[in-house]
Amino acid sequence: MKWLEALTTIATTIGIRFLIPIVMTIGIIYALRKLDARWQAEAEAQIIPATTVFTSSRCYDVKKCSPEQRANCSAADRSEPCWQVFRQTNGGLLKDECLSCGYFFNVPTPVRI
What we know:
Elements: H1 2-56, H2 59-62, H3 67-72, H4 82-89, H5 96-99, H6 102-106
């Protein structure tokens, strides 16, 4: 009977030695996946308003330009974003005004796939 007691002790020790780290690893994986899902939801919530600003309105709507300013603006009647129009007429450089414009910063960056 001593061999049965010894075998039970060895099996229990090996079981504890492997089971505790496996259970802890599974728990950590579960917690990290929940945390990652929350972070992804927060990131998507920040991206959605930026895309709606660009797709639903023109720069003169966002900046609330008067009709006189629109008449004098070369970007008002173009389909391209305003900073692209001004960049083409400025030798490829952005205007200083564009670098501090909220409309420019809220537009999502196009990504090539």
